[in-house]
Design goal:
Helix content: 55-70%
Order of helices and strands: HHHHHHHH
CATH class of the largest domain: Mainly Alpha
Shape: globular
Number of strands: 0
Strand content: under 5%
Radius of gyration: 19 Å
Structural class: mainly alpha
CATH topology of the largest domain: Hemocyanin, N-terminal domain
CATH architecture of the largest domain: Up-down Bundle
Number of domains: 2
Length: about 150
């Protein structure tokens, strides 16, 4: 069966399907901490558009791939275990980005049909705040237009 056919028939938890243990572990790791917006530590500020940060994420992704290649029978568990250790010493957002690159490109993750959760599930607070602020901004413009007419 081709990968496209496998993904087309893949049911998510929302659609009544079962989520694999590897997918559950991945979802838990990729979810941003709820108190992230309170952090005032400027040491950890990852952006994929900074060449130094992108190189660091690439290097961690390479380490993930080497770990997965050395442990073909339980590659995902070993990689996530290493990611947890790496997130203690380096920027957790950088490690999450590297893990998402690993899931996208490594055959062991693709063969298990692992998916990166949508942004709203990964960082609920940030996306809800931005949605709320955009709604308030739109409503403010509507009120201004209404006052002008």
């Amino acid at each position: 069966m081709s990968l496209a056919k496998a993904r087309k028939g893949l049911k998510t938890e929302k659609k009544g399907g079962k989520v694999s243990p590897e997918q559950k572990i991945l979802n838990q790791f990729l979810e941003a901490p709820k108190d992230k917006h309170k952090k005032k530590d400027k040491k950890f500020k990852f952006t994929q558009f900074d060449p130094e940060h992108a190189d660091a994420a690439y290097n961690i992704t390479v380490e993930f791939m080497e770990i997965a290649n050395k442990n073909p029978e339980n590659a995902i568990e070993k990689v996530i275990e290493y990611a947890k250790k790496a997130s203690e010493t380096s920027d957790p957002e950088l490690v999450r980005h590297a893990l998402m690159m690993f899931v996208t490109h490594h055959p062991s993750a693709r063969n298990k049909n692992l998916r990166i959760p949508p942004l709203i599930k990964r960082s609920k607070i940030i996306t809800k705040k931005s949605c709320l602020s955009s709604l308030l901004l739109k409503n403010k413009r509507l009120v201004e237009l209404w006052k002008l007419s």
